[in-house]
Amino acid sequence: MLAAALLGATVIAHAAPETDEKTKALFETKCSGCHIIYRSLVVSKDREGWTKTVNRMREHGCALTDEEAKNIVDYLVKVRGPGAK
C-alpha cells in the first residue's frame, strides 16, 4: 500500500512540469499575438492584478476560454506573482 502511495506521488510530481510547460506554451501563444512576451514578464502582480489584466485582454479581443484564462492567470501568479522565484 505504501508503494502504491509513493508511486502515485511520483506520477503526480511528474505531471506538474508537463502541465506547466503546456500552460507556458498557451501563455506564449495567446499573448504573443499582441505583445512581446518579455513585456508581460517584467511586471509582478498578485492574483487579482493578473486576473484583471487577463480579463482586460479578453475584452480587447484575445480569444480565451474561461479555463484558458484561469490557467494563464495561475501561470503568471506562479512566475510573476508575489514571492515568485
Describe the structure.
This protein is mostly helical. The protein has a single domain (2-80), classed as Cytochrome Bc1 Complex, Chain D, domain 2 (Orthogonal Bundle). The protein has 4 helices and no strands. The chain has helices at residues 2-31, 37-41, 47-59, 66-80. Helix 1 crosses helix 4 (66-80) and helix 3 (47-59) packs across helix 4 (66-80). 13% of the residues are buried.
Main β-sheet, in a few words?
none
Distance between the termini: 36 Å
**What structural class is derived from the secondary structure elements?**
mainly alpha
Give the averaged pLDDT, no decimals. Answer: 83
- The CATH topology turns out to be Cytochrome Bc1 Complex, Chain D, domain 2
Q: State the name of the first-level CATH class.
A: Mainly Alpha
What is the N-to-C succession of helices and strands?
HHHH
Helix proportion range = over 70%
Tell me the radius of gyration: 15 Å
Uncertain segments: 1-15
Oligomer: single chain
Architecture per CATH nomenclature, i.e. the level-2 architecture: Orthogonal Bundle
Shape: globular
Q: How many strand elements?
A: 0
**Count of separate DSSP helical elements:** 4
Strand portion? under 5%
Q: In summary, what is this structure?
A:
This protein is mostly helical. It has helices at 2-31, 37-41, 47-59, 66-80.
